[in-house]
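Note to self: keep these together.
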Amino acid sequence: MPILQDHSPLSTDGKLFARDLVHDLIPKLKTTQNLVNDTLRVRVAKAGNDDERSHYQLLQQEFELEIMMINMNLEHLLQRYAQEIRDVAESYGSLTGPMLELDRHERFAIDSARKLYERARAIQTA
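Structure:
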């Protein structure tokens, strides 16, 4: 299982380069979701007792809800800047793209994604 590493250039001051969204945040969010689900599924299966199993099941539900909220707000951002993001995605990393102006919900989603990523790293290495 790969270990998550953070090299995030993200700023949540209300602005974010399209490249950072496409090539950093979204891939990390997907990786976080997969690794957390895999890690927690294994821990639920190997739980020594019902309390431990319930703890890991609850933690998995918390992550799933958080990821759903993040995805909803990121979807709004992806729709607002669809063409700019498409251009960056199709450039395979050669374009920085514009600086995207984030609304308060999108900023919250970016902050939440970063925190979720750190929590996932902590769970994975625990």
